[in-house]
């Protein structure tokens, strides 16, 4: 399934800081913690706490956020539907990466075990 150029541009220019509070609310409402959210973000991006906070403070766009990231080698194992799109069929790399993060947050909020979320054996 292809995304539109407008959709991809919106993903690229959206700031991580504008979405992050929604991630926190979503996981905490379902009984998970901010620390678990950070563990998932760190797994996907390689960011430590201070780098993550710096990107939030800088109001980094998702484009900058993922340019600075070192995507986990198992990120391609993140598959399935999110926001009406099948992740593995998204052609634009940045949009796919944003949807990887959305999917991980979704799995965390749904109570999936951390070892499954982090694609460990």
TrEMBL record:
InterPro entries xref list: SP1917_dom_sf, UCP033199
Lineage: superkingdom: Bacteria
Name under which the protein is recorded? DUF2200 domain-containing protein
């Amino acid at each position: 399934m292809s995304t539109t150029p407008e959709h991809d541009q919106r993903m690229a220019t959206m700031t991580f800081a504008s979405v992050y509070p929604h991630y926190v609310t979503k996981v905490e409402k379902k009984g998970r913690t901010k620390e678990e959210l950070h563990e998932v973000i760190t797994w996907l991006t390689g960011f430590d706490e201070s780098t993550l906070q710096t990107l939030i403070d800088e109001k980094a766009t998702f484009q900058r956020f993922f340019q600075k990231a070192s995507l986990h080698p198992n990120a391609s194992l993140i598959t399935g539907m999110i926001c009406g799109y099948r992740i593995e069929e998204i052609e634009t790399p940045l949009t796919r990466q944003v949807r990887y993060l959305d999917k991980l947050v979704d799995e965390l909020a749904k109570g999936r075990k951390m070892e499954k979320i982090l694609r460990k054996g």
